[in-house]
Write a structure and sequence with these properties.
Four copies of one chain form a homotetramer. By secondary structure, the first copy, chain A, is mostly helical. In chain A, about 55% of the residues lie in helices and about 0% in strands. The first copy, chain A, has one domain: Helix Hairpins (Orthogonal Bundle).
Amino acid sequence: MRLVFSYSARMNPEVPLTFEAARARVDAYISQFKEGYFPPLLMLARLTEETGEIARVIAHQNGKTPKPGEDVGDLELELADLLFVMICMANERGLSLERGFERMMTKVETRDADRWTKKENL
Amino acid sequence: MRLVFSYSARMNPEVPLTFEAARARVDAYISQFKEGYFPPLLMLARLTEETGEIARVIAHQNGKTPKPGEDVGDLELELADLLFVMICMANERGLSLERGFERMMTKVETRDADRWTKKENL
Amino acid sequence: MRLVFSYSARMNPEVPLTFEAARARVDAYISQFKEGYFPPLLMLARLTEETGEIARVIAHQNGKTPKPGEDVGDLELELADLLFVMICMANERGLSLERGFERMMTKVETRDADRWTKKENL
Amino acid sequence: MRLVFSYSARMNPEVPLTFEAARARVDAYISQFKEGYFPPLLMLARLTEETGEIARVIAHQNGKTPKPGEDVGDLELELADLLFVMICMANERGLSLERGFERMMTKVETRDADRWTKKENL
């Protein structure tokens, strides 16, 4: 697989992962294949699947016994699987998780500023 | 709200958003409040809700008529709401979306390298 | 709307609701409309939405404060909304929830018979 | 396992499955075990998992290639797994899917009566 940027820099703590690099890496991966991005409703089905996988791990960590032969699962990896689908979804629609994050945080910091109990002396 | 880094730089295209900055911003937001992070199963309930919100928008864009008075919704913002819950989930458990992304992409690029049809002359 | 069976009998405790009556009632409702059943992936989007609505109610009942102006929600009605989509999904594919229930219970009662702690003297 | 009612009648087409019989059968199954019903948030995690399983099957039937070694799945059984969790959820809270269905259909038949295009000469 040919990619236009070096992967080796990514886990270097001096070169932290940006949303743009994650977007570009997923796009480079998908763009190798003739199939390309799934259409939106199929991508949503994938999103729902991955949300279900996260649910399985969290259930296992909080009171549900795994079936015989089933392992507890790896939450970090399941979150990353979900993130992969979200990046695909944004890429396919021309949306930006980075811009969305900014818009959402502005909303949360404003709208919900008094929804919870502020710590004193903060 | 006291935050240790400047927000104004974030949307500057020369200072792109990193996963670490997103993690820290969510943590700064949550840490203001006595309630802190929700416990894992409640956080999962929030994740499921937000996945449902994404489903609603994508359904509206793909054949479902909104109810009277209901708008189509904003997919970028709904993706960001889901991302917020994922960052909370990772923060509360001490997991890293950045590390998870690296692990997942390594898996995907290896395991699924021949799952789809490669474009020729790539 | 013309339906071939009487509704008035349904909530009569001497005429309890069968899965077949529920299936037929949903089919009669949908069959009035030219649009008919949604295709499977759009129906799945609806299913995901309704699962999200259930999550919202259960989150509200278990530690999440509703947003200003938002009510706690009605779990019985949200479960019924999900059931509606499931019946649509089964009807559209020619599947039977009744037969599925039988197959699933046989599996559960056999496979999981020793997964949990039996009460003594049962 | 000892149950207080006969199962043999259930698949007899002359004795169709009622929601009450399904409720009672699930309750008899769960009541054998000391663990009993899961608490609501854990049950919701199970619901999310099962919704994800349905998504996986529908994705497989609509354009997603199963991973090597993975089968397409059985939608009828996955719907039944979801139904099982819903019945547990209703039982644990003292809610009735039968009553919910009636309430929901009344709402749908009224509220959405003109949302879609009526067939002519119905």
